[in-house]
Amino acid sequence: MQWTLLIPLKPLVRAKSRLSDTAGDGLRPGLALAFAADTVAAATACSSVRDVVVITDDALAGRELGALGATIIPDTPRRGLNAALSHGEAAVRGERPTAAVAALNADLPALRTAELGRVLTAAASPRAFLADTAGTGTTLLAAAPGTPLRPLFGGASRLRHLASGAVELAPDQVESVRRDVDTGADLRAALSLGVGPRTAAAAAGLLIPDRFVPD
Asked: In 10 A of CB 49, how many CB atoms?
């Protein structure tokens, strides 16, 4: 099965506010864009991914991520993450009703293409999700053809997705798909794991020596 990935991204000036103790207002937008670009680049290279759709109103992000192969859809609802994902799902399934869709966080700078493929292969249930490294949030929510996505992201979304009937995925060796970045500690952990080149450049000298994702 091939998937359409839906990646929501808020305007860069408002993105990653919890990184304020690590990166000032002048650096955070660039970091947020770098996270998203490395996420999109790894996702578009995955053989299980048919296409990547980014839902954003940020013009710069739209240009940069579009150049990486993503389709850009404006965030017309402007009512937050879940509304943006539902909007993207409706747009995709309006053209392809049988599309398999999966919501993916935009802040996975260490994302490995092969690990994403393992997660998508494991998503055999009608609706399934992957918890983040902390075990409280969600980094990926997948819905098979004919199944509504019903995104419940934000805060302790793992429990909400479980309560909604989604199956929790636990494939081996997929740390890069779970390692989202909200805080300085998260960024340090991602850098240690090995991030993509755009994040490595944007974070150079910020926390620890950067490391690149192996080719």
From this structure: 20
Instruction: Name the DSSP letter for residue 212.
Output: B
Angle formed at CA 139 by CA 110 and CA 200, multiple of 5 degrees:
20
Query: Which residue, 12, 90, 16, is CA-closest to 53?
Result: 90
User: Alpha carbon 40 to chain centroid distance?
Assistant: 8
Domain membership of residue 108 (yes or no) is yes
Read off the tokens for 20.
């304020």
Confidence at 18, pLDDT banded by 50, 70, 90: confident
Percent of the chain surpassing pLDDT 70: 93
Sheet holding 71-73, edge to edge: 71-73, 49-55, 3-8, 100-104, 138-143, 127-131, 167-168
Q: Is 64 inside a domain boundary?
A: yes
Displacement of CA 21 from its chain's centroid (Å):
22
CATH number of domain containing 116: 3.90.550.10
* pTM exceeds cut of 0.85: yes
Q: What is the pLDDT of residues 52-109, one digit of tens each?
A: 999 999 999 999 999 999 999 999 999 999 999 999 999 999 999 999 999 999 999 9
Whole-angstrom distance, CA of residue 141 vs CA of residue 132: 11
